[in-house]
Design brief:
Blueprint: H1 4-15, H2 21-28, E1 35-39, H3 45-50, E2 56-61, H4 64-72, E3 76-79, E4 92-98, H5 107-117, E5 118-129, H6 134-145, H7 155-159, E6 167-173, E7 176-182
Parallel strand pairs: 1-2, 1-4, 2-3, 4-5
Antiparallel strand pairs: 5-7, 6-7
Helix pairs in contact: 1-4
């Protein structure tokens, strides 16, 4: 099966460099003494930048080529669909998904799964291009023509995918949006379990 991201992996960091560290630190509320998951994290360009501000950072992606780049950075990388993560409930203190939700096959199932592996008191940040802007509407058309099967959701629609117990807010800047969800620390604590590291 043709994978656009395996092809793009060797040049991805140069083509789309990460340059908004201070903004991301504020959105994710870092530093924190805890574990970060970068879901759909590709080459690990964002996780690598945030790594000094957490105890440990994991990258999950479906592209082998992208994960090879993440592992070259020394990151813990695991191949998995975002809809079915191989982690115990309540594993991560912080979860990010940057510019990736529109690529997953089942967006509702993905958000449900990310919420599951977030610890009570944790924060989940989904950054997406804001499809309500004309720039992103053009990108959406281009990606469809490139057969990337992208499906962009407006920020309020993404927010609606979270359970009613989530404290959700939306921040926008230019043509980007951040949907930030905080899990109440009053939620029942899951049974402690170690992170699956086999195959990393």
């Amino acid at each position: 099966m043709f994978d656009h991201f395996d092809i793009l992996a060797p040049i991805y960091d140069r083509a789309i460099p990460f340059s908004r560290l201070e903004l991301m630190l504020r959105m994710v509320d870092l530093p924190v003494e805890g574990i970060l998951l970068d879901a759909g994290g590709g080459t690990g360009r964002v996780a690598n930048a945030l790594r000094p501000y957490v105890q440990q950072a994991y990258v999950v992606d479906f592209s082998r080529g992208m994960l090879a780049q993440a592992r070259d950075k020394g990151l813990m990388g695991l191949q998995s669909p975002a809809e079915q993560l191989p982690f115990s409930s309540g594993t991560f203190d912080r979860i990010i998904m940057v510019d990736a939700l529109h690529h997953v096959h089942q967006q509702s199932a993905t958000v449900t799964e990310l919420w599951r592996v977030l610890k009570p008191g944790g924060r989940l940040v989904i950054e997406e291009p804001d499809v309500r802007t004309w720039q992103v509407k053009i990108v959406a058309v281009v990606e469809k023509l490139a057969l990337m099967r992208s499906h962009f959701l407006a920020p309020p629609h993404i927010a609606d995918l979270f359970p009613t117990s989530a404290n959700v807010k939306i921040n926008t800047e230019g043509y980007n949006a951040w949907v930030i969800a905080i899990k109440s620390s009053a939620s029942p604590s899951p049974i402690k379990n170690s992170i699956i590291t086999a195959g990393l």
